[in-house]
Amino acid sequence: MTQAYDPGNIFAKILRGEIPSHRVYEDDAVVAFMDVMPQGIGHTLVVPKAPSRNILDADPATFGPLFAVVQKVAVAVKKAFNADGVTLLQFNEPASGQTVYHLHVHVVPRFEGVPLKPHSGQMEKPEVLAENAGKIRAALGS
Ligand code: AMP
């Protein structure tokens, strides 16, 4: 049986401003920030403010605003890093690889011939994340 949503999860804390993140976008319904263990340069997480563990228990009304921002961020990261493409990843429950139980979509710029790094692999330096976040914010603003 699927567990209940836990408001103590790390993304809920980020949404409440209790722990820091490198934010690139925020509106009434959605926040986007840098993944601290990126699978490639510019790896961004797009997170709805509405609480759900994942796609299995989310209110369908969540997906419109969420995917509107996923598209905005995908276009922005492709531009910011001059990428060849963009991969979206989204995991549901431990068997799928989910590690943080608040619905989110991974947006990862891709480059011809460059494989993704492992999921939840190495921590990136904060200054690198800050620089990349600045590039994405600039691309979103233009
Ligand atoms: P998932 O397996 O889809 O639940 O992935 C969770 C993602 O969150 C992983 O890619 C982690 O690198 C990332 N992550 C974990 N903690 C943080 C954090 N504090 N700030 C940003 N990203 C995080």
Automatic annotation (TrEMBL):
Name the Pfam families on file. Answer: HIT (PF01230)
Gene3D superfamilies on file: HIT-like
Output the PROSITE patterns linked to this UniProt entry.
HIT_2
* Stretches assigned to the HIT domain: 10-117
Organism's domain of life?
Answer: Bacteria
Locate the motif Histidine triad motif. Answer: 102-106
Can you name this protein? HIT domain-containing protein
Query: What species does this protein belong to?
Result: Mesorhizobium australafricanum
| Phylogenetic placement of the source organism | Bacteria, Pseudomonadati, Pseudomonadota, Alphaproteobacteria, Hyphomicrobiales
